[in-house]
TrEMBL record:
Cited PANTHER family: DEP DOMAIN PROTEIN, PH DOMAIN-CONTAINING PROTEIN
GO biological process, one term: regulation of signaling
Name of the molecule in the record: Uncharacterized protein
Species annotation: Patiria miniata (Bat star)
Annotated ranges, domain PDZ: 349-426
Amino acid sequence: MFSPNNNSQNGERKSTGQIGLTVSKPQRSSSTASLSNQVFGKILIIGEKLRLSFHNCSPAMVKDRRYHLRMYPKCFVGSEAVDWLIKHGSVKDRPEAAAMLSILQRHNVIHHVCDDHHFKDTYLFYRFRVDDSTLPLSRETELYIKGHQLCHEQTRLGNGSIMKLHNDFGAMYEKSFYGTQLVNWLVTSGKCSTRQEAIGLGKDLLELDLIQHVTTEHHFKDERLLYIFHPDFIQLKIIDLLEMHDRPRSLSLDTNMPTQNQKLLSPSQPVRPKSPQVMDVPVIAENRPKFQIGSPEREDSMNFTSESDNEDVSSSGSQDVHGPSMLLAGFSPTAEEMKNPDATCIRQTVKILGDSVGFGFVVRGDGPSYVQTVDPSGPAAKAGLKTGQFLYFVNGEYVLNKAHVEVAHIILRNPHQLTMDVLVPRHQVIKNR
């Protein structure tokens, strides 16, 4: 998990909401917000709208499900999601609906419960990453989700909402609110502990174009100035995904995209059961860390040093062509064997600057951990990180004997910068020459 760096002297403030994260004070205005970040934010918001719809429909589509005596908390069925989109999402056919859900998976909004399948229009279980706390968080990710939550709550309040029709110098603005009203509501509802904290959140939302002054003349202030939630985000629909799918890259540290020929040691995957009685038994979800690399379901049931015998490029195009098992074939050392790695490996230092969606790689292994996947267009690839390399030191901390989940927590303490010493197998170096 993140270790917040509370350093007010450096101009940092805490972004508030259900997801706590210390972020640096932004050095830009809303007019210079990254187009890529805005597109990614829209995809996140569409995912949140869909998640709330799946939770609130009757009967609820997101629920705890049983397969082979095992419970899968807070998941939905792929074919049922396609059915819902056909009925409610203005989608013309099943392939188009499946394509939209695949886009959400590629952008880390949903994932298969064991991370073993791309999205398929069949009886497989999928889950929203917000529901199992595996969504990789950046400042923008947190604020996009928080902004949508605030807008959604105000819309549901009806007549009690601060969003009303207001007259400002003869101009009428629907669903507008005063800055001081938003601050009051954030404090009285307990979402922010102080007015200063609420003002900071309002400024954060405006800087990401989630809210705006009605004439765009003012930043967010705790004053009688009118603001609205940005129409571009309020009016988003699931069908809009088709216009965005090829824009931003979003493979991140938490992503584990499967391949066609993977042979996994995870439990049998959910398929349509012969008896309906084995499904939909409620269970209390396990307490899990917010940030983890890999499937929560597989964590206690498989040896992460054993992966596939062969791996292909995933259909999303975001995986490195060289899978870890190809590079590690015949070379699966223990942490003890690698304490003096000079004979078998070459040590290299890699420095990675994260972007808004993460560092762009996946790790696996129960000690030593190794790089399983590198996004070819991500920060890790640009820094020279390769699949099959073992993690030796992470931000100055010795990790050779640590499992990948623990290593993930260390990495995510600083989501912006990462320095790693990696061990490169000599046969890999020779092969790459």
